[in-house]
Amino acid sequence: MAADASPTAVAPARPDPTGPGRHAGEAQGPPAAPILAAEHVTLRFGGVRALTDVSFEVRRGEVFSIIGPNGAGKTSMVNCISGRYRPTEGAIRFDGKDITRLPTRKRAGIGIGRTFQNLALFGHMTVLDNIMVGRHHLLRHGFWTGMPYWLLGAQREEIAHRREVEEIIDFLEIQHVRKATAGTLSYGLRKRVELARAVALKPKLILLDEPMAGMNLEEKEDMARFILDLNEEWGMTVLMIEHDMGVVMDISHRVMVLDFGRKIAEGTPEAVLADPHVRRAYLGEADEVVHDVDEPAVA
């Protein structure tokens, strides 16, 4: 499959691959510890293998992108991380703990948030209420245990939650639609609201499944800026699936490439894009074109 041929978003400069928040030439300490590790993950649906022996690590504080043709297994990998799918073989570790069998509902509580390729908003609810849903797991008590608390501190907690939600609304520049019904918004704004709901979880790791899909150039530029700010200013580690190679090159620290459920490359964006296997699988270049690029012609 060829890469996205639509106009490429001009994103802010990508953070230097020496490390998030670092500049080339600065003294480097030890590599950041991985916040996420996939270990030999295989996923089967009957006789079909969606993923085969995939291993990788996402370092704390980086933007890590997964790319590949349609059907390569990208969303299947994210679904294994978020708990929607359980790997047939292998393990997923988060913050050093095995979460392979942890129920989906509990992964938000340990710091994993996500958006979806297909929007999953509550269309009949307001933007504000959709984002407040993301705060649900942060509530301190259930009905019975919360009765004394409700009398003493519920109002203060509600104010605190709404204050944080308003901060997210300001950050994502959706103040003008905060009271609008989500289902009435444009596609680009709905994508932004879904990102806001994921951010409201206060995740350590945020999984973004094609955040730029269906957007025009201006919307892509805004989304790329928001993702960079979440990473650099809000301290969130980002794992992103994205087809727009311009965006991937501009904002990623490292990139992994999947093809037919197998990992075929991993490294800095520049190194991955230069890999002949990637150019053949993802960019659709023929073998002879790849050889012409990599091997100087003999006169």
UniProtKB/TrEMBL annotation:
Residues 1-30 are annotated as: Disordered. Coiled coil: none annotated. Keywords: ATP-binding, Nucleotide-binding, Transport. Residues 36-285 form the ABC transporter domain. Gene3D superfamilies: P-loop containing nucleotide triphosphate hydrolases. It comes from Paracraurococcus ruber. The lineage of its organism: Bacteria, Pseudomonadati, Pseudomonadota, Alphaproteobacteria, Acetobacterales. It comes from the Bacteria. One of its GO terms (molecular function) is ATP binding. Pfam families: ABC_tran, BCA_ABC_TP_C. Residues 1-13 have a biased composition (Low complexity). The keyword Signal does not apply. The keyword Nucleotide-binding applies. This is ABC transporter ATP-binding protein.
